[in-house]
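Re: your question about Nitrate/sulfonate/bicarbonate ABC transporter periplasmic ligand-binding protein

S., sorry for the slow reply, the queue was backed up all week. Below is exactly what I fed in.
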Amino acid sequence: MTNQLWITRCPVPTASSVAFDRGLLERDLGPLGVAVASLQDAPDEATRDAHFHHGLDGLVREGGNVPALWARSTGTATRLVALTWIDEYQAILTTDPALAGDPARLAGRRLGIPRYLDAVVDFQAAMALRGFDAVLGLAGAGLSDVELVDLPATRSRTGWGPGERAPRGAWELELRALRDGVADAVYVKGAPGVAAARAAGVHEVVEFGSHPDPAVRVNNGTPRTITVAAALLDEQPQVVARYLATLLDAADWAGVNGEEVARVFSSETGGDRDAVRRAYGDARLHPDLREDWLDALDLERAFLRDQGLLGPDGGFDVRAWVDPAPLAAARTLRSATHEDRIHA
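Result:
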């Protein structure tokens, strides 16, 4: 049993970030005798690294699927209790005007792959590989038809610390590779990606975060995972259910408070409000376990396995990882006082 709930979320649009901003987590979990803390505010990096490896008692995580899938594939005892799907800006950028607007012209070109050598799990490389694979597929090509160029870097494993939310130097490595002539094209996403696309001399090869085929949009952020430590769910299922109920409340509030949500997401992502609106549109934050979202997550898992980016159990069954009971219980908890709670 734990009386300390660590909640971690990526610097992207999440219901958890809204819930923290509104004070909803303390309001709802405090009466259960549970203290709530943001993992990003932990004073030591070793603790903050649990955002990636999930090896911390009392941890709940809402964020990109690559670390969650990797942790599960390495044997970390977690449960998938919900997913979210928030389409976001995804693009391939270049400084070569000849590539602008035509992904077919990427064939034979040098595509930059960030390689963070001190990362617990290199989700940045995974995102770029998946993004390039999706875009090349639109032109009937694949990763074997291009030259993948490593862009090595080192940095703090988490890239943030106490009191910090927005990522540091997002996409600077990629833009520098374009300007130095090391790579012909790079992958970017999110509000910081919108800002990168606005940089002088930069052109979009293709923007595909709004592509009509959801399979093309599948990446680290689509869908995002909500995972919990298995021991926490086994020992205190009521805490996990209440957390998810609070996220549903936060998502409802976000749906009718667009300007405030833009402020929260600007703080989380480091993008200005215009970039946030361009990147995420009217983001719907509600957790769910839709079958098509689970199919998309399994598509992502298979890609990561085939690229050698997962652990020894990379062929695990995504649906066997799911525990639907907490989300069902969370929906039951949404009582007749729901309207009063979300407007609190």
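DSSP finds 17 helices and ten strands in the chain. Residues 237-255 form the longest helix (19 residues).

Happy to talk it through on Thursday.
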